[in-house]
Amino acid sequence: MAGVRRVTIGFEGTMPLSTRLSEEALSGLRGALGSGGWHDLTTEEGSALIYVPKVIYITTDSSEHRVGFGAA
What is the pTM (predicted TM-score) of this model? Predict the structure, then answer.
């Protein structure tokens, strides 16, 4: 998957889902937020069926992966 980002999806009343999404899948999820109902989400790990009305937040990690404790 080209352009993959770490994404956390928060739901009302349950634990968040942390996964890796392509830019296309992330755009599709954001577009589905206003529609309600179910959204089929293709992730790097597989797929997930999301009930959109229960989504309360989406966070993305746009920084590059770093190893260690100090700032580069």
Answer: 0.80
Dihedral over Cα of 16, 47, 40, 6: its sign = positive
Q: Would residue 37 be called left, alpha or beta, if left means φ above 0 and alpha means ψ between -120 and 50 degrees?
A: left
Helices (H), the chain: 23-32
Per the listing, tokens 């009305």 go with 53
Could you read off the pLDDT tens digit of each residue along the chain, which spans 72 residues? Answer: 458 999 999 999 999 999 999 999 999 999 999 888 999 999 999 999 999 999 999 999 876 666 667 655
